[in-house]
Amino acid sequence: MQEAIASFDFAEYLEKARTRVEDALDASLGPEKPEKLRESMRYSLLAGGKRLRPILCLAACELAGGELEKALPTAVALEMIHTMSLIHDDLPSMDNDDLRRGRPTNHKVYGDAVAILAGDALLTRAFEMVSIRTEGIPSERLLKIIGELSLAAGAPGLVGGQVVDLDCEGKEVDLETLEYIHLHKTGALLKACVTCGALIGGADEKLLEALSIYARGIGLAFQIIDDILDVTASSEVLGKTAGKDLIADKTTYPKLLGLDESRRRADLLVAKAKSALDPWPEKSKPLLALADYITSRDR
Amino acid sequence: MQEAIASFDFAEYLEKARTRVEDALDASLGPEKPEKLRESMRYSLLAGGKRLRPILCLAACELAGGELEKALPTAVALEMIHTMSLIHDDLPSMDNDDLRRGRPTNHKVYGDAVAILAGDALLTRAFEMVSIRTEGIPSERLLKIIGELSLAAGAPGLVGGQVVDLDCEGKEVDLETLEYIHLHKTGALLKACVTCGALIGGADEKLLEALSIYARGIGLAFQIIDDILDVTASSEVLGKTAGKDLIADKTTYPKLLGLDESRRRADLLVAKAKSALDPWPEKSKPLLALADYITSRDR
Question: How far is A293 from chain B, CA to nearest CA, in Å?
Answer without folding.
Answer: 31
